[in-house]
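Following the same procedure, sequence and fold were stored together, as reproduced here:

>
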Amino acid sequence: MKARRISVLFAVVCCLAFGYTVHADSLPHLYEDVTAADLKNSIILSPESSIGFVDGQQVSAVQPIVQDGRTFVPLRFVSEGLGAKVDFNSSNQSINIAYNGKTVSLKLGSKSISIDGQSKNMDVVPRIQNHVTYIPLRDIGEALNKKAIYLQKEDSQANSFIILRGGDATAIENLNLIRVLDLLYQGKAVVYSDRYLAVIKENSKLLVTHLSPSFDISFRPFAYEEYIPTQYESKIGDLWFKTETSQFYLDHAWDTTKDFMLYRVDGDAISRIGIEKAPIKSVKTYQDEVFYLTQYMYGIADPDQTSNLKKAALIEGKWSVTYLGEPGYYYGYDIMGKAFDWSIGANGITTLGWYRYGDLTKEERLKTLGQYQIELTGHHHEFIQ
């Protein structure tokens, strides 16, 4: 009996003594559409893996266990991962957790748990397995005032996920973020991802998959491919552009938001430049900035307050997009929709343009048709001829 008691104490001490190892990868670095603030006070675990995420930072974790239809999480890992202080009293085998002014007390071998002096019974007692103390997921969530979520694996998801989060960390439940997490837990080397697509690296080659709820994950090569439209086919998405300095990929979320997303691809360095509601038809670079033209489409919000000529600049690691030229103007195309070339230099952008917005007659619009020189900053242009 004494030997068994010593082994139990050793198991608890092991559980309460060892921390986790932090890795370089973090979800805000791997997934474009979340920030560190979005993931604050959150923990992600999987019963199938020893990988975890604390506040979005990848760590070496203690695996949760699922037994008899119940989910148990490692007490110390979860509590201290959320910023709580955990103390073990060896004389009476009690565990005290202090968190944000709350006091939680429980005892090994007992269903009773006390939260700020109010006692209740858990459905099952905490258990020790492989020298780790486990507590039911629902009970630790209630004790620390966190939402506890269990996402069971299914056909399109290889891993189950356990999420403990604060009230503000709702972004963590985004379906496409969960799909990227599933790739990470499968050991995929995720190079870039956002709410639209994910790029991984295998055998020194980049592969891409669309993150659509309508389709399963299916990877294909992600490399520049020249596309020449024909009389019978003209793609508006899944296109590549090449300039003297960079390559760009245009994706189209045709089955969900209908958005068009432009990415710069420099080897493994991938970044999303902009999201548009109209197809992007031409891309150029000048100095450290990216310029592109969109095709006019009806239904775009506030066409009188913007133009189809956009400039993207990298500011503090994020692309910022603004329109150039005067609002209501349509550059790079004539009235019949024929595309014209455009050039960029120190004096600005030179191309064909005309005023498209409003109830002008055909003759009035034709008077605005001509060559324009558009400033590289602000919203001014000059009619050349």
In short: The chain is about 15% helix and 40% strand. The first strand starts at residue 22 and ends at 26. Residues 1-18 have pLDDT under 50 and may be disordered.
